[in-house]
Amino acid sequence: MVSLESPDPRASSVQLNADLRHAQLELLSAECATKRLRLQYSIEEIACYAEPEVLRKAIDTVSSLKDFYASLENRLAGAAGRSAEPRPAPTDERLAQAAASVLSYLKEQRERYSPLAVPLSVQQKTIMRPFFSPGILDHVKIAEAKAAKHPDSSFEADSQATGLVRLPEITHMPSLTFIDVIVLNEVLNPRELFHGLVHAVQFQVLGAERYADLFARAFFTAGSHVMVPLEAHAFILESRFTKNRAASFPVEEQVLQWIRENRY
User: Fold this and answer.
1) 166 domain-assigned
2) Count of domains for the chain
3) Element (DSSP H or E) covering residue 119
4) Could you tell me the residue range of the domain that residue 75 belongs to?
5) Do 191 and 219 fall into the same domain?
C-alpha cells in the first residue's frame, strides 16, 4: 500500500481510492449475501439456530465497520459544513440540467481520449470473451490518462451548480469509462478491465443519453458515486468475475435483466 506521505500525492490518491473502491466492492458482496440470508430465513430462525460464535463474529464485524464509516461520515459532514437534514428532492429542471452536464462530460472526455486509445490486445480479448460479445471487445478501446493533458473543464463547476457534488475525478480513479473508451490511471489488470467493460455494455444497451439521465437521477438519491446502481452493478459483476473467472456468464444479459427490473 502506498503511504500517504509519499512524495507523489497524486499516486497516493490513486492508490487510496483504488483500495477504497475494492473495499466498497467487498461490502457490496457482503450486502448481497446478507440479503440472500434475510430472504431465506427469518430473524427468529437465525437467532435460534445460528452458531452463536459465528453470529457474534458477524455482528462484531458489522459494528466495527459501522463505527469506522460513521466516523468518516462525521468528518465529511464537519469539513463540508453540511446539515444532517435530508436534501430536498431536485426539480425536474435541475435533473435535466444535471443529466445534460454528465452527458456533455462523457462525450467531451471520449473525444479527448479516443485518438490516443488502442484496441484490446489478443490476450485481453481471450480473457474477456466468455463474458462479453465480440462486438464489445472489438469496439472498446483503452487509453492512459497521462497520455493527455488535462485542460480546464467546465464540468466541475457545472456539476456543483446542479448538485452533483463529490463526483470522482479522473485522477483519483484507477479507471473511468467514457462510452466506449476506458481511461486508465494505473496498470490495467483483468479486474479493472472487466469493470470498465461492464460500463461499456451499459452504454451500448442504454445509450449515452439514458445512461447520463439514470446516473444523475440515482446520484441525487444515493448521494455517492459508488452507490449509484449503474456503478453498484458493475461492482457486483466484477466481484462475481474475480471470485471465479472460470464460471462464465454473459454480462449483456445481466444488464438487460436489471433494465427489465427497473433496477438502474
Assistant:
1) yes
2) 2
3) strand 118-119
4) 9-80
5) yes
> Does some domain include residue 14?
yes
Q: What is residue 200's three-state secondary structure? A: helix
Question: What was the pLDDT predicted at 5?
Answer: 44
Report how far residue 212's alpha carbon sits from residue 24's, in angstroms, rounded to the nearest whole number: 22
Same domain assignment for residues 97 and 76: no
Give domain status of residue 255, yes or no: yes
Give me the helices (H) in the chain, please: 9-40, 43-49, 52-80, 92-113, 122-128, 134-139, 155-162, 190-206, 208-222, 229-243, 251-260
- Closest C-alpha among 143, 132, 138, 158 to residue 253: 132
Sign of the alpha-carbon torsion through 34, 40, 45, 51: negative
Cell of 98: 444535471
Average pLDDT for 173-200:
90
- Location of C-alpha cell 472498446: 140
Q: Any long-range contacts for 86-92 (C-beta under 8 Å, 24+ apart)?
A: 87/163, 87/220, 87/223, 89/220, 90/163, 90/220
For the stretch 49-78, pLDDT in tens is 888 888 888 887 887 777 787 777 777 666
Domain boundary among 80, 114, 131: 80
* Same domain for 97 and 74: no
pLDDT band at 152 (very low <50, low <70, confident <90, very high): very low
Residues 80-91: tens digit of each pLDDT:
554 445 556 778
d(CA 52, CA 48): 9
One domain for residues 110 and 211:
yes
Please determine, for residue 8, whether its predicted confidence score (pLDDT) is greater than 70: no
pLDDT above 80 for 184: yes
